[in-house]
Amino acid sequence: MKAFLALFALVATLILGYFFGYFRAGIAVALFLGILIIGARYLESIVTAPPEPEVADVSGYGLKYVCTICGLELRVEKAAKETAPRHCTEPMELVREDGKPPLRPV
Ligand SMILES: [Zn+2]
Questions:
Q1: Domain range spanning residue 13?
Q2: Ligand 1 centre and the CA of 31: distance in Å?
Q3: Per residue in 44-78, pLDDT tens?
Q4: Host H or E run for residue 56
Q5: pTM of this prediction exceeds 0.70
Q6: For residue 87, what are the CA distances in angstroms to 6, 58, 82?
Q7: Is residue 103 part of a domain?
């Protein structure tokens, strides 16, 4: 691919340089290749998106997050990571429906 691009740049510079001058043709080809490479990398980053996080269904455990400041409760249906959500700028506390903390961290 690199050899093809280098050959393309050389041929394009020679052909364009014959009509528009080699200095201007060189700048044009360099800009074209730069935009092409940046665009190709951007497209590549879209195609190779990060994989979906592993989500576990924990709706049967009766887990909920409680805000210790204002009392807001959020029931946990699916868990993907261990970081607790924040409310009133404080991390929320994880408890079970019956008020006890869970046996194992979710
Ligand atoms: Zn709150």
A1: 2-47
A2: 53
A3: 888 887 777 788 888 888 888 999 999 999 998 88
A4: strand 56-57
A5: no
A6: 56, 21, 16
A7: no
